[in-house]
Amino acid sequence: AAVRPRILVARAVFPDVLERLRAVFDVEANQEDQILAPAELAHRLADKQGVLTTASERIDAALLAACPQLRIVANMAVGFNNFDVDAMGAAGVQGTNTPDVLTETTADFGFALLMATARRLTEAEHYLRAGQWKQWRYDQFAGAEVHGSRLGIIGMGRIGQGIARRAAHGFGMDVVYHNRSRLAPDLEAACKARYVGKEELLRTADHVLLVLPYTPASHHAIGAAELALMKPTATLVNIARGGIVDDAALAVALREQRIAAAGLDVFEGEPRVHPDLLALSNVVLTPHIASATVPTRRAMATLAADNLIAFFDGRGPLTPVNT
Ligand code: DGY
Predict the structure, then answer these.
(1) Do 53 and 36 share a structural domain?
(2) Catalytic residue positions?
(3) Quick check: helix, strand or coil at residue 261?
(4) Pocket of ligand 1 contains residue 55 by CB under 6 Å
(5) Predicted structure pTM score
(6) Element of type H or E holding 311
(7) Confidence class of residue 322 from pLDDT cuts 50, 70 and 90?
(8) Same domain, yes or no, for 242 and 127?
(9) Smallest Cα–Cα separation from 323: which of 72, 102, 103?
């Protein structure tokens, strides 16, 4: 019989997906489901040809140098800022991600976080649970309007377009967007979105939603200067990656009410959350769950596994990021 490729499953995954992988590969699974430190990951990958990762495992030149047999890294995420794509290319290592399967689910969550933030949902619930609710009052937890307001989307890929469609068609919002490149006219028409410069977007949007990839160019794309352009009544929602927002600057802007509120699903250096954000009530905080529905997480795991299977049986990766 042919020698079975050796793969590492770097984090816990659905048991039946693991069984599918075990049927074709020689699998080592990280049963403890602790994030492997770089040296430990390198050690476990030293004799592996493939690995299934999440966005938590960093694949860089130092790791690749220690893993000469590695040929493919299948990320269970659409974002792949944990990959050093140049180093992987130089080492001849294929990378794959999980696009499309999470688009609509993640767009749903972007909208949920926008609504929770604008309407002060978690702040109000904490107040109720703490037994502080004594009577109805005219201005109690009065937030910002969502329907009919202007939504500014920064990053207009598949997920951004999904949010734009929800906003324009479902909530009658005036949608503007900023992106590296303008969408084709038919795509713009489908989501009723208008292209504007970043500064105009920040100055005029009632709600700013971030859904762009994290790259060196987007590091701290929203810092003190950008926050200063926003309306004092505006909200900021980040479902993209921590690091796109300067969390320390955001905490200052929220504390001084230079913007009204923020909703954050991702953080710089997560799972650590900036203590100044934790101390504020005008921010909704969630633990990187935008793609977290059972069917979508299952589809992501399945696609990551399918990428490994297709790569090793010679069909080639299904959703490559660097070829
Ligand atoms: C993604 O798919 O990129 C999500 O953020 C999960 O890491």
Answers:
(1) yes
(2) 241, 270, 288
(3) strand
(4) yes
(5) 0.96
(6) helix 294-312
(7) confident
(8) yes
(9) 72
For residue 323, pLDDT beyond 70? no
Q: Quote the ligand 1 centre to 79 CA distance (angstroms).
A: 5
Same domain for 18 and 128, yes or no, is no
CA of 280 to the centre of ligand 1 (A): 26
**Quick one: 268 and 230 in the same domain?**
yes
Over residues 62-78, the mean pLDDT reads 98
Give dist(CA 279, CA 222) in Å, integer: 20
Residues 6+ apart with CB under 8 A from 10: 30, 36, 41, 44, 51, 52, 53, 54, 57
The predicted model gives 165-181 an average pLDDT of 98
pLDDT average, residue stretch 6-16: 97
> What is the extent of the structural domain holding 72?
6-99+294-312
CB-based contact 263:290 (threshold 8 Å) = no
Phi then psi for 216, rounded to 5 degrees? -55, -35
Rounded Cα gap, residues 249 and 40, in angstroms: 34
Across the range 280-306, mean pLDDT stands at: 98
The H or E element spanning position 25 is: none
